[in-house]
């Protein structure tokens, strides 16, 4: 499974890269609003740090405007992938941009049918949001299993980026299901390595080492 980092913070991208888990980056307007600096400058800096896709979200609502915005964002760097919400206008824009070899990521996916339409339009990636489904008393991971099954049934090449990940358990479930990519906040990435028995083991080994002198 590839690890993307879900952030607009260049510093966080650097910290994830140091752990070898920055295969790509997803940003969104909410994450960008937490940072200082213009989105375009932030995207450029992030592209210097990672080798993989850097997702930049289009905020237009009408397909023609989304396509225009997508072309402008794609001109920033060849790593840029255009994040487009799973609306009717968004799907129309995906088809046009992918035909121009501009990669797209259909975001805010909450149903298997949205994911199927996005794949049929040629989207390179889809972003189903598991945490927000869990918040609404639905099984977020069930959605991932269903999309994976549908894509497998028809040999669709769209990659699933599991998004809205909130916990270590979410990451484990993504990997058990065989999701292509999980986009994870830095706080959760750093928790993946933590285990109290590891800390206790290090502590007792150090104590015994001191006895040896
Ligand atoms: O990638 C989408 C993610 O940033 C949304 O996360 O926690 O706001 O649902 P959350």
What does this structure look like?
Helices cover 52% and strands 17% of the residues. The protein is α/β, with parallel strands linked by helices and 213 residues long. It has one domain: TIM Barrel, CATH 3.20.20.70. The protein has an 8-stranded parallel barrel, surrounded by 7 helices. The longest helix is centred in the last third of the chain and has 17 residues, at 196-212. The chain is globular, with a radius of gyration of 19 Å. The model has no long low-confidence stretch (mean pLDDT 97). The chain binds SN-glycerol-3-phosphate. SN-glycerol-3-phosphate binds at residues 6, 26, 28, 127, 129, 131-132, 163-164, 166, 183.
The outline comes out as globular
Which distinct ligands sit in these coordinates? SN-glycerol-3-phosphate
Q: Tell me the span between the first and last alpha carbons.
A: 44 Å
Number of strands: 8
Q: How are the strands ordered across the major sheet?
A: 1-2-3-4-5-6-7-8
**Can you tell me the number of structural domains?**
1
Name the average pLDDT. Answer: 97
CATH architecture field: Alpha-Beta Barrel
The share of residues in extended strands comes to 15-25%
